[in-house]
Write a structure and sequence with these properties.
Layout lengths: L6 E2 L23 E8 L3 E9 L10 H5 L2 E3 L2 E5 L5 E4 L1 H14 L7 H14 L11 E10 L11 E11 L10 E5 L17 H5 L2 H9 L4 E5 L7 E4 L3 E6 L2 E5 L9 H12 L4 E4 L3 H9 L3 E8 L3 E10 L2 E4 L7 H14 L10 E4 L1
Parallel strand pairs: 1-3, 9-10, 9-16, 13-14
Antiparallel strand pairs: 2-3, 2-8, 4-7, 5-6, 5-7, 6-18, 7-8, 10-11, 12-13, 12-15, 15-16, 16-17
The structure holds pyridoxal-5'-phosphate (PLP).
The site of pyridoxal-5'-phosphate (PLP) has 14 residues, from helix 6 and strand 15.
Amino acid sequence: MNNYQIDIELCNNRKEKPSFSNLQFGKTYTDHMFVMDYTQGQGWHHPRIIPYQPVTLDPAATIFHYGQTVFEGLKAYLSENEEVFLFRPEENIKRLNRSCERLCIPPVDEEIALEALKKLVAIDRDWIPNVEGMALYIRPFIISTEPNLDVSPSKSYKFMIILSPVGAFYKEGMNPVKIAVEQEYVRAVRGGTGNAKTAGNYAGAMLAQEKSGKSGYSQVLWLDGKENKYIEEVGSMNVFFKVNGEVITPALSGSILEGITRKSVIELLKHWNVPVSERKISIDEIYDAHQNGQLEEAFGTGTAAVISPIGELLWRNEKLVINNGKTGPLAQKIYDALTGIQTGKMEDPFGWRVTVE
Ligand SMILES: *Cc1c(COP(=O)(O)O)cnc(C)c1O
C-alpha cells in the first residue's frame, strides 16, 4: 500500500434527494466529490473528498483551448441485501491511464484511484436508488489546468470523481433501436484518439448524431475513417452481430474504444461456448448476411445500457430489419447475465464484482 491518505470534509447541508422514479441521465449530482491535484515536480497529491462544488479555473487553462482531458464511466449497484457493488472498476482505472498516456497526462496511482472510487461511493451510498434497474453513475475525469496558450502538455491537472443517480435505461423491457449507417462523417481514424476516452471524440461525433436523430434514428453506426467500409462502433457503444450462429465484433484497431462491457460479453460467450470472434467486419458483409437471412441479431454494448439491441439498420436508403425489430434471445441472455452479476442476483464466477464496504 502506498503512503497516502484521502482527506475527508463532509458537507453540512445534504441535498434533498430527487424522486428516483423519473431521473434523467446526468442531471442530478450527489453531495460529495473527489479531487486530487497534479503539479510538475510534486506529482499527484492531496487526494480529498469535499462537498460537491464548482471548480474555478483560469480562462487560459489549457483544457478550455486544447482539450487535454480524459474521462471514465462506471456504475455502483445496490443489491437486494443492500450491498454496494462496482463492476470491474480496476479495468476502468487501467483504461483511464491508457487514455492519459495518449493525451500526455501523467498517470494516476491505480490504488489511490480505486480507494477514491470506493470511499466516495461509500460516503454517498444513500444516493444509490434502491429501485430495480437503477444505479449510481460514476464519472472520474482529469482536466489540464495550467494557464498557457502554447500548445504543449499542461504542467498541472485535476483528477475528479463525481456521482449521479441514474434511472433504468429500459423502463418497459429492452427496446431495440434504429441505427443509421454513417456515410459522410467518421468518428476516429487509426493513429488518432479513437481508443481514448477523451472529450474531442464526443464533440466531433455530435453533428452526425444530430443529423441522424432528425431522420428518426437514435444512433449512427460508424465506419472506419480510411476506407469507409469497416464497421467500428455504434454511437458511444461497441457493436456485436450474430451471423449464422457465430458472434462477431470488430477487432480493436486503435480507433475503437476498448469497452469493458465488450470485453465482458466476449468472456461470457466463451464461457458459454458460443463461437465468438474479433475481426474486421465490412458493412457489405453485414448487408449480404441480411440478404441471405443469416443476420440473426445485432446489439451495442456499453456501461449505460449494458446491451442495446439493434432492430433496424439504415444503409444506402435501405432499411435492414433485424430479428423482426425485436430483442433477440442472445442479447436478452447476455443482458440478464451481466445485470445479474452486477447487482448480485447471480453468481459471479469471474470475480467481476467489487464490494464497497
Ligand atoms: C465508453 C465507451 C464505450 C463503452 O465502454 P464500456 O466500458 O463498455 O462502458 C464504447 N465506445 C465509446 C466510444 C465509449 O466512449
